[in-house]
């Protein structure tokens, strides 16, 4: 949001917005853990299941979840202390390097913290500090986590897509964002639209064009924003996905057969639709005549 807008904001709005941004910094640090560990937790669970079915010893018997073990440098194993884990500030103080072995730390970590802070503040600025604002903040947090997990692994975990879907339906029981009927239709239509595209593409080419996680994510977005928002979300995500995909092929020489995750573009379109849905729907309606 523009700095001049914040400077002249009424105190009743400015306070909750800044608090939400501060909370977003802290949650952003935790989202970095979620993004890194959830795929590994899924893989470990899968490995143990395969081993148990075949009667072999379990390959993973140590505790590994979002809390245990403590975060550590992947190069030297140095455990991250509380003072080294202050969002953004610790990264700057350490010069973007591990304190022990001086290995470079990815700038993505503070970037995710800042992104979470900005979106958290923007959601409260737009929807207030009530149920709608807190729900919108949760919406942003889950989409941020799914975006980067999909970038890294081409996976959209059910542990994140399903809670997003059910939260949207529950919040719309009181028409927080859209009437419940529109939310239910949006959830069903969101899933079925991409499901149909998936099967049409597979029948035509014999290949899978997307994963089932994309169906579930669009269903979740429909549950939050209603069926009316689906055309905007699909249009925006398709345009951005096509531009990025072509750019990667042309400029980064990425192979045409290498999959490009669609979830991040759905998530970005969903965030835009949450914040600017009415304007986007009016613009899209104008384009379509």
Describe the structure.
By secondary structure, the protein is mostly helical. It has helices spanning 3-7, 11-53, 89-93, 108-127, 131-153, 158-171, 180-205, 212-225, 230-251, 263-287. Helix 4 (108-127) runs antiparallel to helix 5 and helix 5 (131-153) runs antiparallel to helix 6 (158-171). The longest helix is centred in the first third of the chain and has 43 residues, at 11-53.
* Percent strand: under 5%
Low-confidence residue ranges:
none
Tell how many strands the DSSP assignment holds. 0
Instruction: Choose one word for the global shape.
Output: globular
Provide a count of the helices.
Answer: 10
Task: Find the structural class using helix and strand composition.
Answer: mainly alpha
- How would you spell out the order of helices and strands? HHHHHHHHHH
Helix content: 55-70%
Main sheet specs: none
Nearest-integer average pLDDT: 89
> Termini distance?
31 Å
User: What Rg, in angstroms, do the CA atoms define?
Assistant: 21 Å
How do you describe this structure in short?
The longest helix is centred in the N-terminal third of the chain and has 43 residues, at 11-53. The protein contains ten helices and no strands.
Keywords:
mainly alpha, 289 residues
List the helices and strands and how they pair.
Elements: H1 3-7, H2 11-53, H3 89-93, H4 108-127, H5 131-153, H6 158-171, H7 180-205, H8 212-225, H9 230-251, H10 263-287
Helix pairs in contact: 2-4, 2-5, 4-5, 5-6, 5-10, 6-8, 7-8, 8-10, 9-10
């Amino acid at each position: 949001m523009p700095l001049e807008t914040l400077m002249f904001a009424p105190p009743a709005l400015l306070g909750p917005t800044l608090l939400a941004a501060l909370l977003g910094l802290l949650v952003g640090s935790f989202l970095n853990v979620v993004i890194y560990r959830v795929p590994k937790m899924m893989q470990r669970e899968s490995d143990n299941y395969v081993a148990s079915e075949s009667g072999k010893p379990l390959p993973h018997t140590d505790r590994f979840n979002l809390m245990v073990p403590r975060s550590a440098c992947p190069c030297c194993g140095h455990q991250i202390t509380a003072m080294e884990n202050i969002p953004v500030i610790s990264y700057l103080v350490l010069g973007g390097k591990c304190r022990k072995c001086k290995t470079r730390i990815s700038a993505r970590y503070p970037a995710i913290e800042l992104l979470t802070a900005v979106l958290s503040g923007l959601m409260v600025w737009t929807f207030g500090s009530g149920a709608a604002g807190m729900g919108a903040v949760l919406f942003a947090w889950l989409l941020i986590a799914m975006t980067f997990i999909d970038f890294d692994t081409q996976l959209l975990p059910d542990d994140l897509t399903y809670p997003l879907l059910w939260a949207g339906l529950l919040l719309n029981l009181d028409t927080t964002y859209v009437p419940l009927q529109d939310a239910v239709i949006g959830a069903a239509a969101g899933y079925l639209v991409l499901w149909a595209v998936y099967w049409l593409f597979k029948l035509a080419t014999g290949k899978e064009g997307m994963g089932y996680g994309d169906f579930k994510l669009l269903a979740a977005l429909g549950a939050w924003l209603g069926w009316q928002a689906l055309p905007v979300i699909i249009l925006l995500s398709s345009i951005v996905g096509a531009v990025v995909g072509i750019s990667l092929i042309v400029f980064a020489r990425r192979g045409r057969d290498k999959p490009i995750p669609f979830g991040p573009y759905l998530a970005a379109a969903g965030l835009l639709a949450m914040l600017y849905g009415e304007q986007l729907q009016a613009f899209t309606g104008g384009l379509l005549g």
